[in-house]
Amino acid sequence: MSTETALDQLKQLTETGLAAIAEASDAAALEALRVQYLGRKSELNGILRGLKDLPPELKGVVGKESNLAKKALESALKERQESLGGGDGASETDPTLPGVRPPVGHEHLLTSTSELILDVFRGLGFSIARGPDVEDDYHNFEALNIPKDHPARDMQDTFFAAEDIVLRTHTSPVQIRTMKKTPPPIRMVFPGRVYRRETPDATHSSEFHQIELLYVDHGVTMRDLKGVLTQFAQQVFGDDVDVRFRPSYFPFVEPGAEVDISCFLCKGSGCRVCKQSGWIEILGSGMVHPNVFRHVGYDPETVTGYAAGMGVERIAMLRHGIPDIRLFFENDLRFLFQF
Ligand code: PHE
């Protein structure tokens, strides 16, 4: 073999090898090329093995060129392997290595808290309905006895989507929608998202969730309300929890009351959570206002009813000692995975 022929052969095989490597589309193709160009039976290996039979004057130059070709092919293989995203190739194909567990999610704490609350009311004979997040002024305010210019509108600063179209500020409009299409008796709960123009802080968020309660029938009294709320409080916060009403004002109920539970942490003796009072406010409630019944076509002389509304975030924060409402919406997995 002449020097020229051997060097030509080396140049040829290096060029075709490098081109093929550059085009290899996966790890398996690369491995096949490694065998073909650098393996024991490869052309290059043949040349290297034949070196010893070459005359001394050829040995040097052919040997040097062969080594350069080998290095070029090796580094091209390595580079291509990296650009295909492979490691050393072994980890992709070794079936004996332990698998990588895919991350599996679970219910959001707000979902599980809602379900817990809804389950209590299901057990008490309530059924569930939902209403739209985008409401009109009539359902969100007017029919709930909150006329235009009424100062109570400021109690819940409102996001307007258009004139007279709002993002609902509470779930109470679902009371109206439900009573308009169903005659009494009604015993229902309405879960959903509500919106208020608030500056977010540890206890305020411009989006949160409520669960509304509505029971209308002949002869419903505030005693029935207290009974149901006591059941609810004990199932959610513990058997020894007590309930009390504090008079309060909501335009769509009369009388209206805020409902406190006795502090489930200190059992009433006073602690940080109940601000030393022994009581924790958990919801608003009252007897459905006669004007609300008139708006939906019910006769306030023949039916009575109670309504209540609670914040789901607040219940979850109390149950789990969560200090900041914004944690529910940040979707930081370090928070979410704890529940
Ligand atoms: N809708 C009231 C609120 O969002 C809560 C409420 C519901 C009060 C039903 C009384 C009766 O604050």
From TrEMBL:
GO terms for molecular function: ATP binding; magnesium ion binding; phenylalanine-tRNA ligase activity; tRNA binding. Binds 2 magnesium ions per tetramer. It catalyses: tRNA(Phe) + L-phenylalanine + ATP = L-phenylalanyl-tRNA(Phe) + AMP + diphosphate + H(+). One of its GO terms (cellular component) is cytoplasm. The keyword Protein biosynthesis applies. Keywords: Aminoacyl-tRNA synthetase, ATP-binding, Cytoplasm, Ligase, Magnesium, Metal-binding, Nucleotide-binding, Protein biosynthesis. Its EC number is 6.1.1.20. Mg(2+) binds at residue 254. InterPro entries: aa-tRNA-synth_II, aa-tRNA-synth_II/BPL/LPL, Phe-tRNA-synth_IIc_asu, Phe-tRNA_ligase_II_N, Phe_tRNA_ligase_alpha1_bac, Phenylalanyl-tRNA_Synthase, tRNA-bd_arm. GO terms for biological process: phenylalanyl-tRNA aminoacylation. Belongs to the class-II aminoacyl-tRNA synthetase family. Phe-tRNA synthetase alpha subunit type 1 subfamily. Tetramer of two alpha and two beta subunits. This is Phenylalanine--tRNA ligase alpha subunit. The gene is pheS.
